[in-house]
Predict the structure of TetR/AcrR family transcriptional regulator.
Amino acid sequence: MATDRAAGRPRDRRTHEAIVSATEEMIMLHGYAGTSINAIASRAGVGKDAIYRRWPGKPELVYEALFARVDTGPVPDTGTLAGDVAQLTQALVDEFATPAATAALPGLLADFAADPALRTRLRSAFLAPARARMVEIFDRAGARGEIAGTAQVDLILDTLAGAVFFHVGLMGEPRTAELAAQLADIVTTGIGTR
Amino acid sequence: MATDRAAGRPRDRRTHEAIVSATEEMIMLHGYAGTSINAIASRAGVGKDAIYRRWPGKPELVYEALFARVDTGPVPDTGTLAGDVAQLTQALVDEFATPAATAALPGLLADFAADPALRTRLRSAFLAPARARMVEIFDRAGARGEIAGTAQVDLILDTLAGAVFFHVGLMGEPRTAELAAQLADIVTTGIGTR
């Protein structure tokens, strides 16, 4: 969503990084409700407008700081659908299991629930990069003949993100080494016999 | 969780029902944070101790009032694994899509996140009835030769509940007639070719 704004002059990237780091630190120290744009700006050593030029508000900034890591780096390309989905799921697991994510999630969800315009942007902006990565994974799987019919990208993305949120974020289950692969198997292979 | 406490004398059942109804109404009117045990007791026409005899506190009461419907009624028995899982998922969809659930979820999640003892009881008490229903569904599927290997009941339950929460509760996607069957298919059949 705002990742492309980090490109450009080195000073812009440093400012972007300083703001994102300060956001994560403030969430860890004070939680979501206790973190303000003012406080983030202070900690990052920037003015408030440096933040508002880049993000519309707190939910967008916190989302990018804590939940957009799954959108960066090369798109998984392991050679199999299950392998690619497992890697994408691992990135989700790594994000949801951080203390900052656990601290931020209820407040972030409350802001989304209270603001219909924000919810609308969830699909079109927040989740667009993750969706694009999944589309690429599914295109390659389709070319290999690994995907049955038309994959419902949004529903599958919601299923994986929801599973990780519920299992790790909410239930507090441990991040075992096998978890991502197990979730990927449930979704790609299914639990039924063939 | 507290469903068996509703059994017994008719007056006990009426009290139980009055408290549960009042809870749902208060959540609809005032949201989760704005709903107190005092206010629920008032609206239900009971004393606070009538509530505390039955539930340890607000999260448990709200959870039962809004999210335990999936635990009641006969266990799905359609003859196929996919059919049974679709019915269980439909009950989840019906619950998460209510305005009261949407209103309560962020605050309920915040209480769970803030209280480790409450989180521990999530698995052992709150979700135990839903888990038992899924175990019964899997036992029958196993006897029919429909289940591959050992089904990871908790992970699959978390996947379905998480998918519904994320897709319907958070993203606000519509409750189409096909949604539950589509989610059940993802989990039982998988998206990969065979």
